[in-house]
Design goal:
Helices cover about 15% and strands about 30% of the residues. The protein is of the alpha+beta class and about 180 residues long. It contains 3 helices and 8 strands. It has a domain of about 130 residues: Structural Genomics Hypothetical 15.5 Kd Protein In mrcA-pckA Intergenic Region, Chain A (Roll), CATH 3.10.290.
Length: about 180
């Protein structure tokens, strides 16, 4: 059996990929093909989730063993899990997380089952630009404290509690001192 899979992204409405892959292929083969076809590096950690019709995450299929000594009963590894073990019907869905830090991924739906077999996965349709593989975080040289945009050098104007003692109204706080007996 051959699966025709549709890949979509919530980051780019114009992104769409269709892949055909043998049902007996491993999740690792699908993983590697997706990464290669999108020109993504294989050095990043990835994972698949079996999903329901509302794209809620279910069973996870990991790139490496993450069970940490727990029962491996419910643990699925990409290398040893065939696609047909977890998806088999038209409409079955997967979520492919390619950016683990930001939890970014692609939505995959099994849209057609075809008779026959296929040795290698194939990209049958490509539309739109793929999302970047990793989020680019820009670290500013200044940080904002209450929106003031103060630099690190300005840290000495604040005491250890984060207040500038010059800005405190001594009269207003002296009333609090008289409440100490309560």
């Amino acid at each position: 059996m051959i699966y025709r899979l549709l890949l979509l992204s919530d980051e780019n409405d114009f992104f769409q990929r269709e892949i055909t892959i043998d049902a007996e292929a491993s999740f690792l083969q699908l993983n590697d093909f997706i990464l290669d076809s999108l020109n993504y590096s294989r050095k990043e950690l990835t994972t698949f989730y079996v999903s329901d019709e509302e794209w809620q995450k279910g069973q996870e299929v990991t790139l490496m063993d993450m069970s940490f000594g727990k029962s491996e009963e419910d643990s699925f590894l990409m290398e040893s899990t065939r696609l047909e073990e977890l998806i088999e019907n038209r409409g079955d869905r997967l979520i492919f997380i390619f950016d683990m830090i930001s939890e970014r991924g692609l939505y995959i739906e099994l849209v057609e089952l075809l008779a026959g077999s296929q040795a290698e996965p194939k990209l049958t349709h490509s539309e739109g630009k793929a999302p970047q593989q990793t989020s680019s975080f820009e670290f500013a040289e200044t940080r904002s404290v209450g929106g003031a945009g103060l630099s690190f050098e300005d840290d000495d104007i604040f005491d250890e509690d984060g207040f500038d003692s010059d800005d405190l109204d001594a009269e207003g706080f002296s009333e609090l001192d008289s409440l100490e007996g309560y």
